[in-house]
What we know:
Layout: E1 10-13, H1 21-34, E2 44-52, E3 57-61, H2 74-85, E4 91-100, H3 113-126, E5 131-135, E6 141-144
Tetrahydrodeoxyuridine binds at residues 39, 42, 44, 46, 62, 64, 71, 73-75, 111-112, 115.
Amino acid sequence: MIEKKITLNYTIFQDSSELSTSDHKLLSKAIEARKKANAPYSKFSVGASLLLENGKVILGNNQENAAYPSGMCAERVAIWNAASHYPNIKIEKIFISASSGLKKVEKPVSPCGACRQTMVEYEINQSKNIEIYFTGETGIIIKCNSITDLLPLAFERSLL
Ligand code: THU
């Protein structure tokens, strides 16, 4: 028997003033997207911005539906928005911002499992890591260097 250990290195920014100017702009875009989220049921709004290798910034936000499971998370709306417009362009970074109409979201909101699974596949396909930054409405911003950091031992196409 061999016991293995997986370690996760991540970065904490105390607030957006610690980000570079370009990353600060990307976070602002995620906030802009979040403010346009369609979240009448959960009141939980999420926005995502993606920086592509060609310099384009692609946005997405959560879209809810009265038939609850028919809704979709911001991250997948954003990543599929990017994939539908620029199918062969690599994604460099993803920024996520979340807020709630019910309480102040002061902790970083990390992506759900289904979004991690979706994003990891794009990362593997493009053979280049995607940096991911996530935050709440206020508070710290967490940066991971790769989606695989959030989904170690992922199920992926090579297993099929
Ligand atoms: N949501 C996201 O947009 N991204 C996540 O990673 C987690 C959850 C949305 C889905 C739903 O509209 C609301 O947040 C509450 O779960």
